[in-house]
Amino acid sequence: MNTQNPKVSIVMSSYNHTPYVKEAIESAVHQTYDNIELIVIDDGSDDNSPILLKELQEKYRFYLELRTNHGLVPTLNYALKNLVTGKYVCILDSDDYWALDKVSKQVSMLEANSNCGLCHTPVYFIDKNSKIISDYNQPTKKEGYIFEELLMGKTNIADGGVMVPKAIYEEIGYYNESIPLEDYQLWFKILAKYPACYLNEHLVYYRVHETNTSNDEKKMLEWEEMVINEWKDHPSFTKAKPEIYLRWFSKYAKYDKIKALTYLSSIIKYPCIYSHKNFYKGLKRLFFYY
């Protein structure tokens, strides 16, 4: 181990991912970077994950803790507050995996840009057989002060592609256990104060399957609304409001037409909305989607 390189803590909360967890763990332990601690907590799996994890732990000698089910976010917070000792932190989902140079490249980026609150990368979406099905890399502003762009929905941060200095967690706070989109909410907290670094390489493979929370579009929309409304008093919200409400009008037109019209009535006075694709998309959904 080269202790001259800053230590990186990789945190994994594992739950019922027997088919995938070996691939995830091996993508962490085989990183080209040589100062890593891997912390794996099994959150009460009732499949064969605990047995497999014990076998992998014996082979690769990472930290493993088996405990009763507490949920993803409390488990991550427990690890961040009590177990992490690295300068930088990455969260690795137990059904995803990384390119083997992910950690090395992100450490180099953050070491060269010590003012940044996080470093993120685009991701590939993969199926249950680890076949790439699409990528997640919108052509938008991804680096610098992007809080306003995040509010407007003009940029995105792929959760699995993020590395955060431990000091940022200690300053900003940990994941909010009462909000389902815990990572999305944390990115707002960080980016309200710090710029982002962006490494334009696909270094993360994000698995898409029927159990992904992100498959429930209506719930995701409600949770997004909950998170963004926390920032109503932020100076950037006033500027971003037409874009935000227009986006919600367009999306809610599929699920809740009264709510969609409420958002539309709040921004009807803004001329900019009439040239936006979401305005016409929302109208189409409002009248023709049932």
Q: What is this structure's SSE topology?
A:
Layout: E1 8-14, H1 21-29, E2 36-43, H2 49-60, E3 63-67, H3 72-82, E4 88-91, E5 97-98, H4 102-112, E6 118-120, E7 123-126, E8 132-136, H5 147-152, E9 162-165, H6 166-172, H7 182-191, E10 196-198, E11 204-207, H8 217-228, H9 235-252, H10 257-267, H11 277-288
Parallel strand pairs: 1-2, 1-4, 2-3, 6-10, 7-11
Antiparallel strand pairs: 4-9, 5-11, 6-9, 7-8
Give a nutshell description of this structure.
This protein is α/β, with parallel strands linked by helices. Helix content is 41%, strand content 17%.
Structure overview:
It is a single chain. This protein has 290 residues and is an alpha/beta fold. It has two domains: 8-215, Spore Coat Polysaccharide Biosynthesis Protein SpsA, Chain A (Alpha-Beta Complex), CATH 3.90.550.10; 232-288, no CATH class. 41% of the residues lie in helices and 17% in strands. The protein has eleven helices and eleven strands. It has a seven-stranded mixed beta sheet, sandwiched between helices. Strands 5-11-7-8 form a four-stranded mixed beta sheet. Helix 2 links the parallel strand 2 (36-43) and strand 3 (63-67). Helix 9 (235-252) packs parallel to helix 11.
Distance from first to last alpha carbon? 60 Å
Largest sheet: 7 strands, mixed
Q: Tell the overall outline.
A: globular
Fraction of residues in helix: 40-55%
Number of strands: 11
The spatial strand order of the largest sheet comes to 3-2-1-4-9-6-10
CATH topology of the largest domain: Spore Coat Polysaccharide Biosynthesis Protein SpsA, Chain A
Into which percentage range does the β-strand content fall? 15-25%
Classified in CATH, the superfamily of the largest domain is Spore Coat Polysaccharide Biosynthesis Protein SpsA, Chain A
**What CATH architecture of the largest domain do you see?**
Alpha-Beta Complex
Instruction: Give me the strand/helix succession.
Output: EHEHEHEEHEEEHEHHEEHHHH
Q: Which secondary-structure class do the elements indicate?
A: alpha/beta
Overall tally of domains: 2
The pLDDT mean sits at 93
Gyration radius (Cα, Å) is 20 Å
- Output the CATH class name of the largest domain: Alpha Beta
